[in-house]
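To: structure subgroup
Subject: Chain for Friday's discussion

All,

I'm putting the inputs and outputs inline so they're searchable in the archive.
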Amino acid sequence: MTALFSSRRGASRELYDLLRDGYLATWRDDRGEQQTVRIAYVDWRDPARNEWLAANQMWIAGDLHTRRVDLVLFVNGIPLVLAEFKEPGRSVRAAYDENLTDYRDTIPQLFWPNAFVILSNGSAARLGATFSPWAQFGEWKWIDEGKRGRVELETAIRGTCEPSRLLDLVESFVAYREQPGGLVKSLARYHQYFGVNAAMQALERIRATGDKQLGVFWHTQGAGKSLSMLWFTQKVLRLVPGGWTFVLVTDRKELDDQLHDTFVDAGAVSREADVQADTAAHLRDLLHADHRYVFTLIHKFRLREGESEMPVLSARSDVIVITDEAHRTQYDVLAQNMRKALPEAAFMGFTGTPLVVGEELTRREFGDYVSIYNFRDAIADGATVPLFYENRIPELQLVNEAFDEELNEILEEGRSRR
């Protein structure tokens, strides 16, 4: 769920950073010595230490207009959630068209600290980031993984507004990204939220057992895998002790650039940081250093002239390798080189396609599925369009059969040469 901000709403990002990280106050005491303390506005770890308030039919005064909103959820006096309702029988879209768009213009200050908005007609419900267009409002389908409520509204409220869940969503599943058209705010969809937290549980498991397989994160195309990687890595850095390094590996230059740009646009990686390997030698330098992120093509895990095997580039155990859509290169020499270079690293595979061919090899390298969001789910959620299959005409089938025969001959010829 994404939202595009105009320049006057850019303060929302600063307010979010302040809310999440707290305020670093400095002063000099009576002896002239400088003192520093971080003031937290929210206790993210213990929901009971915060003050919770749901305000019904609340009047809010803007610069020129006053509006009465249906429901606002406050944490320590901070309005994090807005809910707007229509009477049963009316469409949920009416709450967006008739109310939410008006509120954004007339009482914009309500949305500066807002995390997300719930729209409902009492049964159906849609949830979106603060300034999302209607097309980006979607159903929150689970209270807990695989568990739904009796109606959509119940699922949305219990799935996102239970105190510990709400704090987790706000702290770890919001991203602001600089885009050519302006500042974009993204909030995790339900499959991203549960998928990332399943990956966190997998990390906790391997830290206890010493295993190196974090599993396979299978979310179909259009499901937002890059943001899921961002939220997973950022949550690890914030909550799990250790000097973590994440090595993000792809097998195509466009994927490498796209992934790197996502992290830069979100502020997780500085634009000045030189952490995208452009040569095999550069990759070795990056892995010898202590970077939080390293982006590389798997092809850069190659031997130098005169080397008989890959040397160890980092023996640290707080390294996590995340591979994205690199199926064909995960079982060959380059993959072996990568594992020799990082012998104590943990490995996780992200993919948008089902692992049918070579599934046993995939399990051997990465472990079982840690999260699944398949093509059928994505179509039902509107995250991707349906795929239709139509039989080809006989003439084209003959061409395909001839091509297959020719391809088989080439493959057989290659085998005989070996």
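Points worth raising on Friday:
The two ends are 52 Å apart (CA to CA).
The chain has two domains: 2-187, 190-381.

D.
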